[in-house]
Every structure is written in structure tokens, then in C-alpha cells.
Specification:
CATH class of the largest domain: Mainly Alpha
Distance between the termini: 34 Å
Helix content: 40-55%
Number of helices: 13
CATH topology of the largest domain: Butyryl-CoA Dehydrogenase, subunit A, domain 3
CATH superfamily of the largest domain: Butyryl-CoA Dehydrogenase, subunit A, domain 3
Radius of gyration: 22 Å
């Protein structure tokens, strides 16, 4: 493994950092999170047109840039630094890889170019930690096994419809007969605003249930979406209710390893999230160091006190360890050497939580207030742990997958 950045990777990072510096300051980020959509469409358009960010990891034949998930993760380190509120995670990190891996040729040709251009936003409607195999084996109860709950799918027989497109909002023409979905999914990233939803649903009845993925247009009849109050306003979430909603099956019904594809996507997403958390932790530490160099107590800057130096040094060491783990996970996700995204995410989230907590304390009486930026970074760490973790469960699942404790018992 060559740990050095390529010229292309450096160029992507620097160009994105400059654009975000000009267009995504603290005030703009707060204002974007407070909009009904939860993000700034103008910023999203700029990221798509100037940098091709939504299609960074998509092949060129679909209008993408042709880079890998490694470059996408490095780009998300920059968006994490400013807590940019964008639909990038749901659209490009979760949905696009699944469409590329499982979709039919027609579905790829219809959806991926629009995702790459930024004209189509999408999200994955699943329980994140379990379905993406980050905190548990996604082949367990969530995948069926005779249990009800979640979202159910039933096939509908009938003649093909002449025109079942969704008016440009996401779904391609439905196959003969089609499917209908009913159920509810909570805590869906951008679930209230995405143009297209990729919904995981049980099919085949309770006794022989299996998980399939379905495309649902954002304006489909019977689809009810509600924005939820989230701990982190820059990571908007929605509740999705499907009341006998028409849907299109992603790919073929037989032969597709849906759970395996979700697990692979989850590992890549964890690496991307780890890089994003590292960027946020780096910025939190940077602002704290700046502040302790300016604030004076007893006639000297508090940053000159040995106790403060030690605390910030500990944060720096933890941050650098998390950065190394995140970069390795981003590399491994592409080269498929091993799945270490969950471990990297656990370390990065802990580094972000520590950096943000120390920042709040060392900023004194203003650190925890709504007006200051320090509290936003702490909320990002806590919110991501609630969605994708927590850290101890990420590590426990990685240990189980590696059969770590079983090996220890045999050795003893």
C-alpha cells in the first residue's frame, strides 16, 4: 500500500476545500440545514457542475468522473470539516453503488447519469446499522426468518402499463405487473426530500421471506414522508410510510445477492463516514487551538498552560490514529483486501467526540451554547453513533466477524 496521495487526489481535496471555504461557512451551513429540504440546492449544484462530486466514484460511461470510493472518502473529509449539509451520503455513497451493482442495464442507464449530474437525489430506506452489516450480521432477523415488520412487498399481476415513469423524479418504467409496498421506515437520511427512495422490503411471505430492493419515486401516490427532528440538523432525517405504494424491483428477482451488496456498501460507507468524521475532528481541534492561543487567564494565554497542552496533545494523537485507520479503510474498500470500515468508523467517531468535547470545555462558557460552532461538532459525533454505531457495537461486530474470541478460546 502506497500511503501517499496522488496528484489527482490532492487536486480534488484542494479544489473542494476552496469551494467549501467560499460557499459553506458556519452561517451558510446553519441556514441550509434550516431549509425544508435540509440542504442548499445551489451549493449542491455547484459541487456537481464544478467538481462532479456526486459522480466522483461512478464510471465515465454513466457520466461520472471515473474515480474510486477512495477519492470519494477523501472528498468527504473536506465536507466533514465544515459539516456541509448535502445529500451526498445518501445519493452517492449508499444508493449509487447499489444501483451500479444490482441494477439492470436500463436502470443504470436511466438513474446513474442523473445521479452523476446532481439532478437526481436519492436515499436508502433501511435500518442503517443492521441492514448495512455494521453492528450486526444482516442475515439475521432483519432479513426475514418468518418475522413480520419492516416493509412488505407483494407482486401485482396484470398487463404492462403504457407509461409509468415518474415525471423525472427517479423511477424507471415499471415491469409487467410490478410490486406494491407497505410499511414504515424511520430515521431515513434525507428521507423527506430525496427524489428517489431505494427501499429494502420483505418478499415471499413470512415463512420464506427474503430481502429485495425497490425503487420508489419521491412523488409516488401513497408515499407519506415526514421530516424528523434530528440531533444533528446538518444530517436531516425523515420517516417514510408506504401505503400500498407502486415500486419497481431493482435488478432481477432471482440470483441477486442483496444482503451481500448491502454489506459491501456498508463497509464502503463506513470508510467514507470515518474520513468525514476525521475532517470534522480536525476542524474542531484547529478551532480549539486557535482559541486557547487567544484567551488569556492570569495574564497569559491559556494555551501556554501545561495541562491544556497535554489535553490537546492527547486529542491530536487520537486524531492522527483515526486518520490512519480511515485512510486505510478507504483504500481497502476499493482493493477488497479486508473489511475494516466499521473499525475505522468506531475510531473516527471516538476521535470526533473527544475533540468536540475538549473544544467545548476549553472554550469555557460559550462552548456549549447554540451560537458557537463547537456544539455542532459534538452533535455530529453523537448523531452518527446513533445512526451507524455506537462504537462499541461496531467493534464487537468486527470481532465476531473475525472470530476473534473463538480463536482466543482455542489458544487458551
Amino acid at each position: 500500500m502506497d500511503a501517499r496521495f496522488t496528484a489527482e487526489q490532492d487536486g480534488i481535496r484542494l479544489a473542494l476545500r476552496e469551494l467549501l471555504r467560499r460557499r459553506c461557512g458556519p452561517g451558510e451551513s446553519r441556514s441550509a440545514a434550516d431549509t425544508p429540504a435540509g440542504y442548499d440546492p445551489e451549493l449542491w449544484t455547484a459541487l456537481a457542475r464544478q467538481l462532479g462530486l456526486p459522480g466522483l466514484a461512478l464510471p465515465e460511461r454513466y457520466g461520472g468522473v471515473g474515480c474510486s470510493a477512495t477519492e470519494l472518502a477523501l472528498a468527504c473529509e473536506e465536507t466533514g470539516r465544515v459539516l456541509a449539509a448535502t445529500p451526498l451520503l445518501g445519493t452517492s455513497v449508499l444508493v449509487a453503488p447499489l444501483v451500479l451493482a444490482l441494477g439492470t442495464d436500463a436502470q443504470r442507464a436511466d438513474l446513474l447519469p442523473r445521479i452523476a449530474s446532481g439532478s437526481l437525489t436519492a436515499t436508502l430506506a433501511v435500518p442503517p446499522g443492521t441492514a448495512l452489516a455494521l453492528t450486526d450480521d444482516n442475515r439475521g432477523d432483519w432479513a426475514g426468518g418468518g418475522r413480520a415488520g419492516g416493509v412488505q412487498a407483494r407482486p401485482v399481476s396484470g398487463p404492462p402499463r403504457e407509461d409509468t415513469t415518474s415525471g423525472g423524479t427517479g423511477a424507471a418504467p415499471a415491469p409487467r405487473g410490478g410490486w406494491r409496498l407497505y410499511g414504515q421506515v424511520d430515521q431515513v437520511l434525507d428521507g423527506h426530500s430525496a427524489d428517489l427512495l431505494l427501499v429494502a422490503a420483505h418478499a415471499g411471505g413470512f415463512a420464506r421471506s427474503r430481502i429485495l430492493l425497490f425503487l420508489v419515486a419521491g412523488d409516488a401516490p401513497g408515499l407519506v414522508r415526514t421530516r424528523l427532528t434530528a440531533l444533528d440538523a446538518t444530517r436531516p432525517q425523515g420517516r417514510v410510510q408506504l401505503r400500498d405504494v407502486e415500486a419497481e424491483l431493482l435488478g432481477a428477482e432471482d440470483g441477486a445477492d442483496v444482503l451481500g451488496a448491502l454489506a459491501r456498501t456498508g463497509d464502503t460507507a463506513a470508510a467514507v463516514l470515518a474520513c468525514e468524521a476525521v475532517g470534522a475532528a480536525d476542524r474542531a481541534l484547529e478551532t480549539t487551538v486557535e482559541y486557547v492561543g487567544q484567551r488569556e487567564q492570569f495574564g497569559r494565554a491559556i494555551g501556554s498552560f501545561q495541562a491544556v497542552k497535554h489535553r490537546l496533545a492527547d486529542v491530536y494523537v487520537q486524531l492522527q490514529a483515526a486518520r490512519s485507520a480511515a485512510y486505510f479503510a478507504a483504500w481497502a474498500a476499493v482493493h477488497e483486501e479486508q473489511r475494516v470500515g466499521g473499525l475505522a468508523l468506531a475510531q473516527a467517531l471516538e476521535a470526533l467526540r473527544t475533540a468536540a468535547a475538549e473544544g467545548i470545555q476549553l472554550h469555557g462558557g460559550i462552548g456549549f451554547t447554540w451560537e458557537h460552532e463547537a456544539q455542532r461538532y459534538f452533535k455530529r459525533a453523537a448523531a452518527d453513533e446513533l445512526l451507524f454505531g455506537p462504537a462499541h457495537r461496531l467493534r464487537a461486530h468486527a470481532a465476531d466477524a473475525a472470530q476473534l474470541f473463538e480463536r482466543a478460546e482455542v489458544t487458551v
